[in-house]
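C-alpha cells in:
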C-alpha cells in the first residue's frame, strides 16, 4: 500500500504524456498501462526482464546439471514442484542468489564457483523463501507501476545535479531555480491543496520499503533454516560479512549498508536457530 501514491503519480504522468500526444489517448493509454501490470508475470516477459533488465543468462549445460541436482534437494525438502521456478545465472562477484520476477531464481557465477553444493542449496532455499512468501511478485508489480514516476524523478535529479555541478554561473542559477520551484510545488501540493496523502507516503515510502525488505530477508532466512539449511546459510552470511569488512572492500562505499545487512541477518539467524534448538520448557 505504501507504493500506491507513487503509482498514482505514475498514472498522472502517463495520462499527461498521452494527452500531449492526442487527447483521445488520455484515457486509453493509462488504462492499457494499468492492465499491462499482470503481463509482467508471463513467462516470456519474465525472461525478458531477467535477461535485459537484470543482466541474467541461462545456465550452461554444466551449470544447469549442477544447479538441477542442488535445486532438486531444496524443492524436495520444501515440497515444491521443481519445475515451478527457472534458475538463471548472474555475472556478479557476490556469494548470493536473487529471487527475480515471479518464476525466476538467479544465482551468481561467483556463488557457483565458490560455494559447495550444501551452501549453494542454502542460498537457493533462501530465495525460494522469498518466492513462497510472494515477495518477488509484489515487488515486481510495485516496481512496474512506480516506473514512470521513478524515471521522471531520476531525470529531474540528474538535470538539477548536472546544473548545480557545472562551472557555469547560469547553469548553477538554473539548477537553483529548479530546486526552489520543486520545493515550492511540493509545499503547495501538501499544504495549500491538502494532498499530503500523496506527498507524505512518497517521502517516507523508501524508508518503509527498506524496512519491509529487511523483514522479508529475515523471513526468507527463517524459511531456509526451517528446511534444514540454517548452519550452511549462516556460514555463507559470515563469509559475506568478512568479505565486506576486508580493508580493500571497506575502502569502497557499501551499497545499501551491506556490512550491517549481513551482520544483522546473521544475528537474526543465530537467534532463531538457537531458539529452534532450545529444549522445550527451557527459557
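Residues out:
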Amino acid at each position: 500500500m505504501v507504493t500506491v501514491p507513487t503509482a498514482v503519480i505514475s498514472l498522472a504522468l502517463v495520462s499527461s504524456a498521452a494527452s500531449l500526444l492526442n487527447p483521445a489517448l488520455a484515457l486509453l493509454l493509462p488504462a492499457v498501462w494499468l492492465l499491462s501490470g499482470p503481463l509482467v508475470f508471463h513467462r516470456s516477459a519474465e525472461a525478458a526482464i531477467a535477461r535485459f533488465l537484470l543482466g541474467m543468462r541461462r545456465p550452461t549445460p554444466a551449470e544447469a546439471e549442477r544447479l538441477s541436482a542442488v535445486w532438486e534437494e531444496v524443492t524436495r525438502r520444501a515440497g515444491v514442484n521443481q519445475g515451478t521456478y527457472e534458475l538463471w545465472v548472474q555475472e556478479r562477484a557476490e556469494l548470493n542468489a536473487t529471487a527475480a520476477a515471479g518464476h525466476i531464481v538467479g544465482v551468481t557465477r561467483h556463488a557457483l564457483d565458490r560455494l559447495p553444493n550444501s551452501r549453494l542449496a542454502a542460498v537457493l532455499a533462501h530465495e525460494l523463501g522469498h518466492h513462497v512468501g510472494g515477495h518477488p511478485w509484489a515487488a515486481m508489480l510495485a516496481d512496474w507501476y512506480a516506473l514512470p514516476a521513478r524515471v521522471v524523478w531520476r531525470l529531474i535529479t540528474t538535470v538539477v545535479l548536472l546544473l548545480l555541478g557545472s562551472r557555469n554561473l547560469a547553469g548553477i542559477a538554473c539548477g537553483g531555480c529548479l530546486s526552489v520551484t520543486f520545493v515550492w510545488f511540493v509545499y503547495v501540493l501538501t499544504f495549500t491543496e491538502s494532498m499530503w496523502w500523496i506527498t507524505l507516503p512518497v517521502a517516507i515510502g523508501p524508508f518503509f520499503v527498506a524496512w519491509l525488505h529487511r523483514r522479508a530477508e529475515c523471513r526468507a532466512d527463517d524459511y531456509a533454516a526451517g528446511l534444514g539449511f540454517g548452519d550452511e546459510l549462516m556460514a555463507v552470511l559470515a563469509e559475506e560479512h568478512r568479505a565486506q569488512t576486508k580493508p580493500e572492500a571497506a575502502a569502497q562505499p557499501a551499497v545499501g549498508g551491506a556490512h550491517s545487512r549481513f551482520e544483522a541477518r546473521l544475528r537474526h539467524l543465530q537467534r532463531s536457530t538457537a531458539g529452534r534448538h532450545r529444549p522445550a520448557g527451557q527459557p
